[in-house]
Amino acid sequence: MKRIITIGLVASLGLLGACQEAGTQAAKEKAPVTESKTAPLSVPLYDAKTFFETTTYAMPAGSGFAFFPDGKSVLVSSDKSGIFNAYAINITDSAITPLTSSMTNAVYAVTVFPTDGRILYTFDGGGNELNHVYVREEDGATQDLTPGENLKAQFVGWSGDGTGFYLASNERNPSFFDLYRYDRDGYERTLVYENTGYQLSAISPNGNWLALGKSNTSADSDIFLVDLRNEDKTPKLISVHDGDISYGVYGFSADSAVLEYSTNEHGEFNQAWSYDLASGEKSPLVQADWDVSFTATSNSGRYRVTGVNADARTKVTLTNAQTGEALALPDLPPGDIRRIRFSGDESKITFLLNADTSPSNVHVVDLKAGTDSVLTNALNPAIDQTMLVNSQVVRYASFDGLKIPSILYRPKTASADHKAPAIVLVHGGPGGQSRTGYNPMVQHLVNHGYVVLAANNRGSSGYGKTFNHMDDKRHGEVDLQDIVYARKYLESLDWVDGDHVAIMGGSYGGYMVAAALAFEPEVFDAGIDIFGVTNWVRTLKSIPPWWESFKKSLYDEMGDPAVDEERHRRISPLFHAGNITKPLLVVQGVNDPRVLKVESDELVEKVRANGVMVEYLVFPDEGHGFRSRKNRISASEAYVSFLDKTLK
Hints:
This protein is α+β, with helices and mostly antiparallel strands. The chain is built from 11 helices and 36 strands.
């Protein structure tokens, strides 16, 4: 009997809740070339601690400023201390100064103030996702700008003149986020918009216009505009259309004259369009052969930054916004640019550069001098970078001939004479996407001799709207078969030990693990279920209140629990746990608001009742994901230990 384990890990549970250059299509679909029969390469084995002592750096998200006003330092978040905190990095000597010192809750930097050294930052309560927004004064004093119990708040952006900033909070109604303006000095708060059921998308720099989103179904959405100068703030629909078309908001132009938005109205992929606020005229802005993930201009409007999701990697372009001419950047190491941020005078940019074998490092480019400075060295110096593995984009045929794009990692020791056991890794979402880039968990698995195939089953984002919606209300069925056929693909590679292949995943990927073991019990040898849904009946009835604005879209994709409970029971592994006969590792955070701990408790109990080996790892200080380095280390060691016991 073939022994295969499938592993599915998610960055986020989208319904409930970031390589090498790809070649031609034909090259993508070919199996990797077989090596000649030689002795296996000697590769040093590193433990999880070594991989996770690599330092993670993150830039402020959204429209937050990264450069301090004097242009001498940049703001980052980092787990340098073992848990995320806010830091300032000097761009001249790379000296790093801690700005927060939390030892329990992960802290994420939000923005620098445009006039001084104050910052905004955010954190929640041990992974419960109830974030508050705090200000840190220049003297180190802090203040919660969004106090209260059981509320969630987030940063929206700065006013164009820098005299105020906007925060969103669901304190009035847990289901919807209202928009507030805070004065830069004194923090006096004013209600800007009382939300009645929309998603807050963007506010114009001049404060006159608010863009709202509304999900109609999983495939159909709209954009609304509110003229905040009017007493009547009734949203105006600007995306009138027929059929299933998706619309989203990138943001407003620097002069507040244009709304820039995404739509798949004109093809399979999201493209960037502009809406003239005065005339209502729509025109194309950025076109590509893949989804335009983001596009925005610098604060002056002089430069445009655009990112395209090109076959699971991000291609970023920086252009002159008036001429469209690309800016010449200095030679950079291989990898993807992430989160470009401009200095106040727009003479410099800072960004992250990330590759399969290199975690994100902070760069600063002087646009006038044409020089690049690398401020960090994120990879643990104990690791020989040449021993890490680059990924390959491949495609394999599923049960109906549909090609499934995937990311393949091949251990350096794997050859026809020295076959390696394998793992099918399933992402979350369910509409997520496995992408290229540094992943310490994956590199740890590969370093210990496991092939990893990160499958982007039908329903994944990034491959067009048709592919994205092929699994709507067919979850645990057609998408599960894509994962089953991932095993067949792995068996076709003569450097893979097709008798020892595993499945692993988190969130929706964790659901796929449990579903595979319950509904295809002879396909995989073992499973690693990381905070996975096991009971859709309960999960869809207990979604957090702040998902209310897109609950209809969620129900459209997964089914409404009021009418689809029979189907939800049919596809829920918990009600079929008696079929599970293969070893199982379950990992769960106590504070998870998306997949409640009871989901994992009940699955573990039922599978153990079958007399099956079950290991259960519970983190009391985590939610939907692992924010503490020590917990990430413990989890990764548990994965390898479990696989060593069940696959080798």
